Give the backbone structure.
Amino acid sequence: AQKITQTQPGMFVQEKEAVTLDCTYDTSDPSYGLFWYKQPSSGEMIFLIYQGSYDQQNATEGRYSLNFQKARKSANLVISASQLGDSAMYFCAMRENLYTGANSKLTFGKGITLSVRP
Amino acid sequence: DSGVTQTPKHLITATGQRVTLRCSPRSGDLSVYWYQQSLDQGLQFLIQYYNGEERAKGNILERFSAQQFPDLHSELNLSSLELGDSALYFCASSVDTSGPSYEQYFGPGTRLTVT
């Protein structure tokens, strides 16, 4: 079974509007972290935001916020006031075994393409 | 700029050949991860090193190997290359492997094309 699911097809948003990118995850580990990365056409992976499974509040970083619904196992990324430079591929990722120091790989979803229209 | 450097940026080689990809982690980071991004497989974890020791293995082929040197830089060796090995190879580093918020910082990647 897939651990990270991103099923939205290519997303389009008008400049200055908000957009939500969906991510659902599957794990039986109680301590995990969820990450969002942005990959522009140039190819680099840019870390955007992090949410820990024990965090009481939803994470926010500037225009990025994470709508974390633990019971639903979803961690949707919300981008407010979209900019043309937000056009990119967005990946949701999970890291399990958060406190053990064991295998701390990131498991990625397939990504969502976001296009911002002027 | 994440602080993680990877060389070369692009690599074009023929089937059957062997290549070495190099990664220098951020200053102070002890952990290095290698990921492969291909169109059909997406982003997949290959292998992780922590302070010179192999820590975890993912979907890494036997034809691939890696190591982390005393100065903490890492090399990923790919041999007997096949067309399907064409991909973007990322190195990432983090300061540690445990703890809640040690995000992994990714290098710019090496784009490998096997012809």
